[in-house]
């Protein structure tokens, strides 16, 4: 920390992403609390009163919210626990907070229940995407000041923080998240908003992967993405190259109480896990032979169905870089691929800056951890971009990284919006201070 | 003048006289006070090895200046306290807390506050704007907005241009923004009263210089550079390499030309960029001496002083033949130094003629090209490699040289013998023909011709070995040609033995 000119004031950092909310102390290298951003809820009208009274005791992560007659289930044992009639909602979409109602609960769960600290004693740094709206950041400041009584607050851009975490003032930050892939040019610690480009590419990749799994492929039938919460017992057949249909029994008593949103949430989660453990991308571009040479990988689903996935697992990552012509023909509004995002970001920047940005490429986000992603990206850059560029830099600890460093810098402490300033200037101070 | 003897020194220093006079005098009987006087900072083993013979070294070693060990907090525990502090760079009264060493002043100036540097952006009054800064492209409000942004982003124009959103004004490029900003600054500096001197004012104005058209042209050029196709880039690279090559050629040519000019006209010709290299310089001087001796050149002999000054250089670069004095001869003999004289082939001392240091084995004579294969064969039969000596001492080199000479002589002699032998054979045959029959002259002549040809061919086809064996066994003719190599060896070594000393 000494090298960074750090001065620890024990600030808290809250990084709210589409799939998870990370919270921790500034200056740590990993977040202390990682909880899913999505939450489960049940309308009180369905429940009887005594059930809701009994449940908070059983489930540690649950937090009741009586005034709206809606019960929220938050945290690691929130949506992932099966409950009769529980719905799942996503307050963050496309990296933007679309529904602020559960946000205070989520934050308080992370800070109070997981980290066991009092937000009123610590300055708080919150992150935002580069395309965050003014209303959103003002609302966030309001929540922090009014509900959590924080002494000081700052909202910082993830792109800038990622560039700083990689030790760079100017960088081209490529962030592949859960639902959004973005390319952010950062110059001297400021985001160039005109050069910013982002698309919902990861959602397409996930949809493609889900389609790949659930539809028949070569010699195997479509796979049922059934949650393990609904399976009473199963017999796992030996892992073979030719698929064997799974043998399992469903928990029939649970099936009627399962909601559509919960099922969709689970299927997305299962697909995501499959992508993370099995999928990859070929570093030199799609090639049948190369795909066949890469070998097979084994994956077992909750139903007991298991299979060695071959070339198909490598098609998943391909979606990040190229769209097949038939897909383009059928759907004109496809999200931009990573190379397209990069070139559109660069073309919007000043020609003088392009070399600087391409010399400092920072790759971050959970999606970028796909096996072979970085290699493929450097190949694409060499092929398509007519520039000299240097190797890609990675901030330590991919997603959360050293975001927090900036909140523990000595020179940063003059930027905090204090409670006093908040009370004096109101919402306008947020836009003024957090450029 | 004779210096003081060792005995004198000893008597002066009142040292005991050595038990055995000679070279190994510092040897002292062990176990005396000598060991007790071992200087500080020198290890015992080293001292017993070098003894007192390295006093200067010992003096240097006496005190090892080690870095002092850092005193980390005086050895005791340091108390840290969680204290609140006030950041001087903040306008409000926010108090954050951090860990501080107990005992430090908590109300001292916050150490990071000094990094809060405010950029000084020019401000102008309404009056100044009307008087100086009016521009039909820009309104006062938009200029204000621009200066506000410049202050906010500390003059980072890339960011200013990115965030520039002025209501319903025309779209501004970064060049427009910079142009306006710098022109306003220039005008303000020029027209405001200036406290310093004119030079600093001019310098400040020039730092605000901005040429919009030039900048636009440059941007266009940068863009066109980026839009090159790979083939264009490859072509450009190839051209660049070609250019470098040509340049190198030219440089080499120029250097050669200079070298030549210097050799011909001397250093005084006043070439603009002649580098007076030490080596060639000395060479030129020795050359002038020599040429003067011969009376060819009429250069002024102003060189000797400098030549003697760099005398060692002269010897190294161009060993001037000189007479060995008796003393140096004895010295040479003692140290096994053999001085060789370099044959001065030419009077010019160019770099090409310069004789660098060489290995003795490089200078072995090579046989004449016509006789070379035959000599090589002879050497091969002897089992001696004439190209490489395992131990090329001076004697061995001389031996090999004489051996090569002998072999060459042998081959030459053999050639002569062959010729003579052939001639006698022809003559004898002719004589025989004359005596037996005088009538069939014409036919005989033809036959002779045929015979001679046959012999000639035969001779050409013969190996060196066989011909030499012929020489040693002259009376027998054809039959002797199939002699074994062993006999050849004996003859050859016999011939050699004669030459050996």
TrEMBL record, chain A:
Protein name, UniProt field: Uncharacterized protein
SMART domains: ACTIN
Organism: Hermanssonia centrifuga
InterPro entries reported for this sequence: Actin, Actin/actin-like_CS, ATPase_NBD
Pfam families listed in its UniProt record: Actin
Lineage top rank: taxon: Eukaryota
Similarity comment text for this entry: Belongs to the actin family.
Automatic annotation (TrEMBL), chain B:
Main location: nucleus
GO cellular component term of the entry, any: NuA4 histone acetyltransferase complex
GO molecular function: transcription corepressor activity
Skewed-composition ranges (Acidic residues): 439-456
Record's compositionally biased regions (Basic residues): 471-480
Keywords linked to the UniProt accession: Chromatin regulator, Nucleus, Transcription, Transcription regulation
Subcellular location: Nucleus
InterPro entries, per database record: DAMP1_SANT-like, Homeodomain-like_sf, SANT/Myb, Swc4/Dmap1
Residue ranges of domain Myb-like in the record: 134-187
Biological processes, Gene Ontology terms: chromatin remodeling; DNA repair; negative regulation of transcription by RNA polymerase II
Ranges annotated as biased composition (Low complexity): 11-24
Keyword Cell wall biogenesis/degradation found: no
Family assignment from sequence similarity: Belongs to the SWC4 family.
Annotated function: Component of the SWR1 complex which mediates the ATP-dependent exchange of histone H2A for the H2A variant HZT1 leading to transcriptional regulation of selected genes by chromatin remodeling. Component of the NuA4 histone acetyltransferase complex which is involved in transcriptional activation of selected genes principally by acetylation of nucleosomal histone H4 and H2A. The NuA4 complex is also involved in DNA repair.
Designated name of the protein: SWR1-complex protein 4
Protein species of origin: Hermanssonia centrifuga
């Amino acid at each position: 920390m000494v090298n960074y000119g750090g001065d620890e004031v024990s600030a808290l950092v809250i990084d709210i992403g589409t799939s998870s909310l990370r919270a921790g102390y500034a200056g740590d290298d990993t977040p202390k609390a990682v909880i899913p951003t999505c939450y489960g809820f049940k309308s009180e009208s369905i429940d009887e009163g005594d059930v809701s009274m009994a449940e908070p005791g059983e489930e540690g992560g649950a937090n009741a919210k009586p005034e709206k007659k809606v019960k929220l289930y938050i945290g690691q044992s929130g949506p992932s626990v099966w409950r009769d009639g529980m719905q799942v909602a996503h307050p963050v979409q496309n990296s933007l907070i679309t529904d602020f109602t559960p946000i205070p609960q989520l934050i308080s769960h992370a800070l109070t229940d997981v980290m066991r600290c009092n937000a009123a004693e610590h300055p708080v740094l919150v992150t935002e995407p580069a395309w965050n709206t003014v209303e959103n950041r003002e609302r966030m400041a309001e929540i922090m000041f009014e509900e959590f009584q924080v002494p000081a607050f700052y909202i910082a851009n993830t792109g800038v923080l990622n560039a700083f975490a990689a030790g760079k003032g100017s960088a081209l930050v490529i962030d592949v998240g859960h639902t959004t892939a973005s390319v952010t040019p950062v110059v001297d610690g400021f985001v160039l908003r005109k050069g910013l480009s982002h698309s919902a590419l990861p959602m397409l990749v996930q949809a493609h992967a889900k389609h790949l799994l659930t539809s028949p492929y070569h010699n195997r039938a479509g796979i049922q993405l059934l949650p393990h919460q609904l399976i009473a017992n199963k017999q796992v057949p030996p892992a073979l190259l030719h698929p064997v249909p799974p043998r399992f029994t469903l928990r029939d008593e649970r099936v009627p109480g399962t909601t559509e949103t919960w099922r969709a949430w689970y299927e997305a989660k299962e697909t995501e896990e499959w992508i993370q453990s099995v999928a990859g991308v070929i570093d030199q571009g799609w090639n049948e032979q190369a795909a066949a040479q890469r070998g097979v990988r084994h994956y077992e689903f909750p139903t007991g169905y298991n299979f060695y996935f071959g070339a198909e697992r490598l098609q998943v990552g391909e979606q990040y870089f190229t769209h097949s012509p038939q897909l383009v023909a059928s759907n004109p509004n496809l999200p931009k691929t990573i190379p397209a995002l990069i070139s559109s970001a660069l073309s919007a920047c000043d020609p003088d800056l392009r070399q600087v940005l391409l010399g400092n490429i920072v790759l971050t986000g959970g999606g970028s951890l796909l096996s072979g992603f970085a290699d493929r990206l450097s190949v694409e850059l060499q092929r398509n971009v007519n520039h000299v560029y240097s190797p890609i830099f990675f901030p330590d600890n991919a997603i959360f990284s050293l975001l927090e460093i900036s909140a523990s810098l000595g020179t940063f402490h003059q930027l905090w919006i204090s409670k006093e300033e908040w009370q004096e200037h109101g919402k306008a101070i947020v836009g003024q201070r957090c450029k | 003048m004779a210096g003081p003897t060792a005995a004198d020194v000893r008597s002066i220093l009142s040292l005991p006289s050595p038990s055995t006079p000679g070279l190994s005098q510092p040897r002292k009987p062990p176990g005396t006070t000598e060991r007790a006087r071992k200087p500080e900072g020198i290890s015992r083993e080293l001292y017993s090895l070098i003894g007192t013979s390295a006093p200067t070294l010992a003096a240097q070693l006496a005190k090892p200046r080690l870095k002092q060990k850092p005193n980390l907090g005086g050895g005791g525990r340091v108390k840290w306290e969680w204290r609140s502090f006030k950041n001087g760079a903040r306008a409000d009264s926010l108090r954050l807390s951090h860990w501080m060493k107990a005992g430090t002043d908590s109300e001292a100036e916050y150490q990071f506050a000094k990094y809060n540097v405010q950029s000084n952006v020019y401000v102008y009054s309404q009056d100044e704007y009307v008087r100086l800064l009016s521009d039909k492209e820009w309104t006062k409000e938009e200029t204000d907005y621009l200066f506000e942004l410049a202050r906010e982003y500390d003059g980072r124009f890339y960011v200013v241009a990115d965030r520039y959103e002025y209501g319903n004004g025309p779209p501004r490029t970064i060049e427009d923004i910079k142009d306006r900003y710098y022109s306003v600054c220039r005008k303000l500096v020029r027209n405001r009263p200036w406290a310093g001197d004119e030079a600093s004012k001019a310098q400040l104005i020039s730092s605000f210089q901005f040429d919009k058209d030039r900048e636009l042209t440059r941007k266009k050029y940068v863009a066109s550079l980026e839009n090159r196709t790979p083939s264009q880039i490859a072509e450009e690279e190839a051209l660049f390499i070609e250019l470098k090559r040509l340049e190198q050629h030219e440089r080499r040519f120029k250097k050669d030309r200079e070298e030549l000019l210097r050799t011909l006209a001397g250093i005084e010709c006043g070439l603009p960029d002649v580098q007076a290299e030490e080596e060639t310089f000395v060479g030129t001087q020795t050359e002038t001496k020599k040429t003067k001796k011969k009376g060819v050149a009429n250069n002024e002999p102003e060189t000797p002083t400098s030549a003697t000054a760099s005398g060692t250089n002269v010897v190294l670069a161009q060993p001037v033949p000189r007479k060995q004095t008796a003393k140096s001869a004895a010295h040479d003999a003692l140290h096994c130094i053999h001085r060789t004289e370099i044959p001065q082939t030419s009077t010019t001392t160019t770099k090409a003629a310069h004789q660098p240091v060489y290995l003795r084995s490089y200078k072995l004579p090579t046989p004449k090209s016509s006789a070379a294969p035959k000599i090589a064969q002879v050497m091969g039969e002897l089992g001696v490699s004439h190209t490489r000596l395992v131990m090329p001492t001076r004697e061995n080199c001389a031996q090999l040289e004489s051996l090569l000479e002998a072999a060459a002589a042998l081959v030459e002699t053999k050639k002569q013998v062959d010729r003579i032998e052939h001639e006698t054979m022809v003559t004898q045959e002719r004589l025989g023909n004359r005596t037996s029959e005088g009538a069939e002259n014409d036919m005989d002549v033809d036959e002779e011709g045929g015979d001679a040809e046959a012999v000639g061919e035969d001779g050409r086809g013969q190996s060196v070995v066989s011909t030499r064996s012929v020489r040693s066994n002259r009376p027998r003719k054809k039959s002797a040609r199939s002699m074994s190599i062993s006999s050849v060896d004996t003859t050859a070594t016999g011939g050699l033995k004669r030459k050996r000393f």
